[in-house]
Protein: Band 7 protein AGAP004871-like isoform X5
Organism: Glossina fuscipes
Amino acid sequence: MPETLSIVDQRRATIVPLHQQRQPEDDVSDDKASTCGTVLIFLSVVLVILTLPFSLFVCFKVVQEYERAVIFRLGRLMQGGAKGPGIFFILPCIDSYARVDLRTRTYDVPPQEVLTKDSVTVSVDAVVYYRVSNATVSIANVENAHHSTRLLAQTTLRNTMGTRHLHEILSERVSISGTMQLQLDEATDAWGIKVERVEIKDVRLPVQLQRAMAAEAEAAREARAKVIAAEGEQKASRALREASEVIGDSPAALQLRYLQTLSAISAEKNSTIVFPLPIDLITYFLKTNDAQTQKNAKAAAAAMAQQEKHEQQEEQRKQQEQQKRQQQKQPKSATVLYSDVKQPPKTQETSITVATLSEHQQSTAM
């Protein structure tokens, strides 16, 4: 695969050679290193030839279809890029190689506590799918490309969620995932990593906020249900009014409706027995019942009036008896003296009156 470098790396590759002039001492050291390397390569080839066929087990390596081998000779990256798939040859003692898996890997981002733009704390986790697009760059440019990609995914998730409102996080997961995928892909391009997909798996809200949102949603649903029920009642009332007008114009329509109701009831297997009665007969009984009720009410009112009158008479009689008892308690001598003083000419009549009063008091006391 061709090597891919980021824009920054390309600029550095073009700018650095302009500012750095090679010194003669560097040329001398490169010549010495190349001479020493040539000697070591020659010795390694001689060793392979002398140890045949046992050296073949060490020199030939095999990589799978989904793998690539990055070879370093004397610590330097060999030209031609990564080797594989299949068999490749290395020299003992001077060559080393690293296997790179090109298959797509899945990283489950652990839940991240994020403070949204509207100051709500939420816990968000995601899934990142990535693969190695350039084996040479992933080995030469970064120490551990997979670990770096995973850490970058966590920070990118926190930074992206921190710039969004809560309602955007809950309703725009697809757009947020696409934004994160572009950011991660651009950042990991210099490491030879290709981010294929990012998915937001779950958004966990605080318990109190969940209850508040649930109560709000329930209230909204109840309000809509009440509005729908009110509209249904309004339509039903209009239909009933129109039906009553039609039935009122045609008296036979009511009887037909009654018969239709009986037919609907009799369609089911039940023990209900319905006796149809004319509406006029029921009206007559209702009128008769009203007249009897009025008559009973008048009789009850007259009886109550008579009872009140009788109670008043009884009360007057009790008052008269009480007055008589008070008069009987007065002394007789006072009564006689009073009669003698007030009416001297009528002595005989006064005596008879006093005697009669005394007899009456004695009979009452007995």
About this structure: The chain has a mean pLDDT of 77.
